[in-house]
Structures are given as structure tokens and as C-alpha cells.
Amino acid sequence: MRAGLVVAVALLAACQPASPPVAGGSVASTVVHPAWSRNAVIYEVNVRQYTPEGTLAAFQRHLPRLDSLGVDILWVMPVQPIGKKNRKGLLGSPYSISDYTAINPELGTEADFKALVDAAHARGMKVILDWVANHTAFDHPWISQHKDYYVTKSDGTIINARDGEGHDTDWTDVAELNYDNAGLRRAMITDMRWWMDNMGIDGFRCDVAGGVPTDFWLDARRTLEASHPGLFMLAEADDPRIHAAFDMTYGWEFHHLLNDIAQRKKGTSALGPYFAKEDSLFGRDAYRMYFTSDHDENSWNGSEFERMGANHIPAFVLSATAENSMPLLYTGQEVSMQKRLRFFEKDTVDWTGPSLASFYTAMFALKHKEPALANGPWGGTQTPLTTTAGDRVYAFTRTRGSNTVLTVVNFGDTTVKANYQGLEQAGGYTDWMTKRRVMLGAQGSVDIPAHGFRVLVR
Known about the structure:
Layout: H1 9-12, E1 21-22, E2 25-26, E3 42-45, H2 47-50, H3 56-60, H4 63-69, E4 73-76, H5 110-122, E5 126-131, E6 135-137, H6 141-145, E7 174-176, H7 182-199, E8 203-206, H8 214-227, E9 232-235, E10 248-250, H9 252-262, H10 271-282, E11 287-291, H11 295-301, H12 304-308, H13 312-321, E12 325-330, H14 357-369, E13 381-384, E14 386-387, E15 393-400, E16 403-410, E17 416-421, E18 427-431, E19 437-440, E20 443-448, E21 452-457
């Protein structure tokens, strides 16, 4: 929901059971990823801020451009009506939902949303809806009709929502739901299914997923998948155990590590231990969403330009090429959006900024074309490559069969000659950006521009 909720769960997971704790004991569950997700990239749509109109119909006009960019999955932020009681700001938070099975009239109609989904599908894109299961607005009908659906204090007062780790928050516009209540669980799954049955969406991005019991998510996935095979689910969580129900989780720790490296708080030597831990905790089946910005980061912690400066480029290259990663692009990043979009007010994206479309298009095409960069178990093994270029450079290869992708990034202020050794897949490579042929031996050197990268493929 909001950035800055640093998830400690993943750091503790190594000393916790591998299976999620659920009612009745541990559950062994294996998510079968839809085939279309194997080399997909994802794009987050902030409908309210996307256009001056701030409507679904106005956003739909951008689909040809996003198709050309190479987007596979549209993650649409919540489109339901926003609560008025305890509302924050003039327009309120999209995550304060007063009716799960309706469209916010400020954005359009049910017909508008269905038209958007159909148009995306016609272009081969999938649509997942942001789903807020942890809490509702204080004027949702359940507040008066089913108070037992909510967590209450000893005096019967419904509490504000807590974050994914159960900590109190300042989210005074939303009420915490009680998943000990079987009726709530049934009602929530029914409302989720409404969107799949009536709007034809392909899945959900689940807000504050760690604040909802994993056994609920398991039930929801089984129920929805029974009638809608190919379901895709993204959890706003960083706990490996939740992958029993979800295709993909957030790479928050990686995101914060990239910020630290970009700001010289840490060196690239921290990347090796991070990737080793990821492999140990998550394995090859889990998709991990890596990103340089999203709606929370942009609004609360600043744009990628604020947090990373020119190093947002090598940071995104790592996000697009690292093992298990599905890269995310947020609304406006393709035009170098540098402002923080206001969260509770209308604040339209400035689409006149310097275009980075060619860069992101190239990164997405790389992801689509090279088998070694496929998501999850379909991608290639990641192997670090030793260089003498210092603690601002990081290099690795990913190989699957005869396909190898060599990535070298430079977070430094000057061009460097990265002398490397131990390249097992020596031979002829193609520079992905320039299309020039390069011969690489087991030992050699590669020039890397300041705040830049090289991606070589064979």
C-alpha cells in the first residue's frame, strides 16, 4: 500500500518452516505459472494520474503505445469506489474501497473497464487488478451489515488497518478485516470471482498480502483457478512461504539494496550475497518482481531520479536481467517522470519529459527474446563473473542451453575497463544495444560507460 514498510520477514525466513502455516497444519502447494508469464514484463497503471481526464477510457488510448513498448501484463491500481468517511485528501486513497464489485464513477463505468480489458486482450496483453483484501473503507456496507467481519478493540470499536507485519499504521481511512471469520472469507472470494467472471481479468495484485493469512490465499487461488485456469497472482509481500499461493512476490530487499548502491551507501559486493540468499530462500520456481519505482516508492520516497540519480539505468538493467526477476515499469517512467505524484489528489503525469522508451523497449525485447532471461525455472542459471573494476561494477552471466547473456553494470561516475576472468562461454557475442559483434575470450576486458551497462548475448 505505502512505501517504507520495510519487510523483515524474508530476513527471518531462513529460520522458519518452508511451508506456510495454515489452519489444519502445513500445506504442500505448488503454483503452476501460466505459460504466458514465462518471459513476461509488467507495467503498473495509475489510472487517476495517467491522463488529464483520469478515466479508464482515456487510458485505453495508450494501449497501442504500451504494446509497442513491449508490455505483457497491465497491473491496474484499484478502480472501485473510494470511501468518503475518514477520507484522506480531496479524492482519497484508491486503497480505501467502499464497494468491491463496482467502478469508481470518477474513472468511468463497468462497460469502460470491460472495454479496456477486451482491448488489452486483443493486443495479447493480460490485465491484473489491484485487490485490497486486508481492509475496507469505513463506509463499506460490511461495516454496518457485518461488523463481525472486522477486527475490533475490547470496547467494540473497529480498528484502523495494520501493515503486513501486524504493526499499527496511520491508515485512518481504512478498517482492518478479520480473517478468523469464515463468512468474510467466502464473501471476499465471491467478490474476487466477480471480476474474473464479469470483467475477464487475468488475476490480481494483492495489496498488503502478508497481512492476510496465507491459508485464505490458498483457498482463494484454488477456488478461482477451478473456473479460471491460467490465473496469475502477485503478492505485495516478501515472504517465500506465501509462494504456496502466489506466482510472484516483491523484491523489496533488492530494491532497497539498489537504492543504497546508487547512493554509494553500499558497494556492488553486496549483490553476490544477496543473490545467494535469494536462491536459498526462494529457489527457482518463485517469480520475483524487481523494480526501480512503483506508486508507493514514487509518492512517498521519491522518483527513481531522486533515489538513484543517473544510476537508475544500471539498476533497471539488473532488475531486468537478474535470475527469477520479472521487471516492473511504473506509470511515467518511460518519459523520465521526476515528480512525486500526489497520492490523495489529482496530479497528472507530465508526458513531455525526455523519452526513455527506446531503453525500456530494448530491455523488454531482451527479456522476450533470450531464453536465458526467462522467468522462474525456465530461465538460465546466474553465475557471477570476477572483474578488477572495483566496487561500482558488477558482472554476471545467465546461460540456458546454447544461449548466454552477459550483463555488466557500472554505478560509477567514470567509464571503466572491466577486466574479467573465468568466462566459461567464450566466443562471439552481440552487443544488445549497438548490435555490434564482439569476440570474448575466457579472459579479457569490456568497456562500461559511467552510470551505464553492457549486455552481450550469444
